[in-house]
Design a protein that fits this description.
Blueprint (H helix, E strand, L loop, with lengths): L16 H22 L8 H4 L1 E9 L10 H17 L6 E5 L3 E7 L4 H7 L6 E11 L37 H13 L1 E2 L7 E2 L13 H14 L5 H7 L9 E8 L2 E7 L4 E2 L3 E9 L4 E8 L1 H14 L9 E5 L2 E4 L10 E5 L4 H13 L5 E10 L2 H29 L2 H27 L5 H30 L4 H33 L3 H31 L3 H4 L9 H4 L5 H10 L10
Parallel strand pairs: 7-13
Antiparallel strand pairs: 1-3, 1-15, 2-3, 4-8, 4-9, 4-12, 5-6, 7-8, 10-11, 11-14, 12-13
């Protein structure tokens, strides 16, 4: 009889359980240590558990553009609002349409909630307009009141590569202001194409368009009467103005100090901005917003700054207009192209907010806030308590079944469930600050469903071991031979569960994604626990007398299982008679 080759392990041979157990122990210690080190020892809670703010926005179209409120624009607005809020680090913000013209935004209580509330409905319509005239923000006095000059507007900080060291030439009040304004309106406005255009540009059909003199007079009257100290007039000044038309707007030079501007048609739009971010300028000691333009935007910006750089002040300035308000109006001394900066009365929060808004784009529609409701966590807390009670009852029933049917083997199952629960909790706590994961009620349901998935893996493995014992094998080889077949079944089962969770996560939105994410996470952890804990522990316990000898309370008693006579007797008979036994049957 040929001797077996050394170093060859037969199918189902003994593994090295110590290595696997050491690996999962190190992972558990590292994750738990990371959780305490980060300071986030509990998972972040969603709006239904922690409370928060629910905002209802209603879309409104400009006069004559009612068709703009459509499904495409509403979905685009939802996407932009969601990216804005997520850009602030707010986790689990839920943004969805309701009906034809409403958007519901649910913001959980926590970090940056206030900033998110301020940004959700901000239209962020950004335009770069040439400045035609600028004066103090109050209404101009009547001509009979005299011609005393109004105070000069405080110059805005300059754009990147430009200069704003000199005060702008400011029209005087009364009759002097009127003459200066008329001259500014009649002066050619620089355009990227190099052609001079007279502001304002007529709009509408030729037959219905007002004459240039009438449009100029109306705009002159609007500019003269505008009082930027009145918040209502500031808001109304820029509404309903098309980008191709001249406009009047207000800008804050310092807290409580306003200037009003007469602006030409927009030359560059917010869509031409590729990226924007708020950052601190060390040299000037102030917060600014830097912008990078797209390819087409760079050409437009280069063309308009090239034209403005040859003009006299204040017509060498361009105003950066956000939602009808001038946030900066730097003068231009040289041609600029790829990038620019917005500087003004920014602090860290306002600079970063503006950069976030510009980076993620302007909303295609204007929105008005219909309601802002504070959601309490009381109802969610009651539901969570009920869910946890249901989960505890389910877990208790599973444990009772395991103890009654598997007896000693139930100890392995309970320990494995405990390891899986610990890993799930620690990872959820770490994912909160890492990726903004927030635990909501559907996610809790997903974790409860995972109890059954994990318990099913144990049952598959235990039943395979019992099948081997019924064939007459002893426990140690039975444990090793049962593992390959049980492993395949467990992998296929968990793959199907994970695939279902992945598809559910992709095709759904909102809270349902929390259920899918938790289900997928716990399914992956089931594979880790079964491979690195359940199987190695089973291998070690098979070497003990209690389990190895088939104690009646071990759950592996050969007599209770109806085992056949041991295969070792058959092997001895074969060795003394017909020939060697198949080593795989050992």
């Amino acid at each position: 009889m040929a001797a077996p080759k050394k170093g060859r392990r037969p199918a189902g041979g003994q593994s090295r359980p110590g290595r696997a157990l050491a690996l999962i122990l190190i992972a558990m210690v590292a994750l738990t240590g990371g959780m305490f080190w980060s300071g986030h020892t509990t998972p972040r809670l969603g709006i239904d558990l922690a409370g928060g703010t629910s905002i209802t926005l209603k879309a409104k179209a400009e006069p004559g553009q009612e068709s703009a409120v459509n499904e495409t624009n509403m979905n685009t607005a939802v996407d932009i609002i969601e990216r804005r809020v997520n850009g602030l680090g707010v986790s689990e913000a839920e943004v969805q349409t309701q009906g034809r013209e409403n958007i519901i935004v649910n913001i959980p209580r926590g970090t940056n909630e206030k900033q998110a509330r301020e940004q959700v409905g901000t239209t962020a319509q950004l335009y770069f307009r040439p400045v035609l005239a600028v004066t103090n923000g109050g209404p101009a006095p009547a001509p009979s009141a005299g011609t005393s000059g109004s105070p000069s507007a405080t110059p805005k900080p300059s754009a990147s590569g430009s200069s704003a060291g000199e005060k702008p030439t400011t029209p005087t009040a009364g009759a002097t202001q009127g003459r200066a304004l008329t001259e500014a309106l009649k002066a050619p406005t620089p355009t990227p194409t190099g052609t001079a255009s007279t502001a304002p540009k007529p709009s509408g059909t030729p037959s219905a368009a007002p004459t240039p003199d009438a449009a100029t007079a109306a705009l002159e009257q609007k500019f003269t009467a505008l009082n930027c100290l009145d918040p209502k007039q500031r808001t109304a000044a820029g509404q309903g103005v098309k980008p191709t038309e001249p406009a009047v707007a207000c800008g804050e030079d310092a807290p409580g100090v306003w200037s009003k501007y007469l602006l030409g048609p927009a030359e560059v739009e917010g869509r031409d901005v590729d990226d924007a971010k708020g950052q601190f300028d060390q040299q000037r000691g102030m917060w600014i917003v830097t912008m990078d333009f797209t390819g087409a935007g760079s050409k437009k910006f280069q063309a308009i700054t090239g034209k403005l750089s040859s003009q006299a002040d204040p017509q060498n300035r361009f105003a950066i207009v956000l939602d009808g308000e001038v946030v900066s109006a730097p003068s231009v001394r040289q041609t600029l192209s790829a990038s620019a900066e917005i500087s003004g009365n920014f602090n860290q929060q306002s600079a970063q907010d503006l950069g976030n808004i510009l980076s993620y784009g302007a909303l295609p529609l204007s929105f008005e806030t219909q309601s802002v409701d504070t959601v309490t966590a009381a109802l969610g807390g009651d539901q969570l308590e009920a869910g946890l009670i249901a989960g505890a009852i389910g877990l208790g029933l599973v444990i009772i079944y395991l103890v009654a049917y598997y007896r000693g083997l139930s100890l392995i199952a309970i320990l494995s469930l405990g390891v899986s629960a610990l890993l799930t909790y620690v990872i959820m706590a770490l994912l909160g600050p890492a990726i903004g994961f927030a635990l909501n009620l559907p996610a809790v349901c997903g974790a409860i469903v995972a109890i059954g998935i994990t318990a099913d893996s144990f049952i598959v493995y235990f039943e395979r071991i019992r099948d081997e014992l019924r064939e007459g094998r002893t426990l140690r080889p039975a444990v090793e031979r049962a593992w390959p077949r049980a492993r395949r079944t467990i992998m296929v089962s968990d793959f199907v569960s994970f695939l279902a969770a992945a598809v559910l996560f992709i095709v759904t939105v909102g809270k349902v994604q929390g259920f899918a994410f938790t289900l997928g996470l716990t399914t992956l952890l089931d594979v880790v626990v079964v491979f690195l804990f359940t199987k190695p522990v089973m291998t070690l316990l098979a070497r003990t007398k209690f389990f190895g000898d088939g104690h009646p309370w071990s759950g592996l008693d050969p007599k209770r299982l109806g085992a056949k006579p041991p295969l070792r007797r058959s092997r001895r008979a074969t060795a003394s008679g017909a020939g060697p036994a198949d080593p795989k049957e050992a």
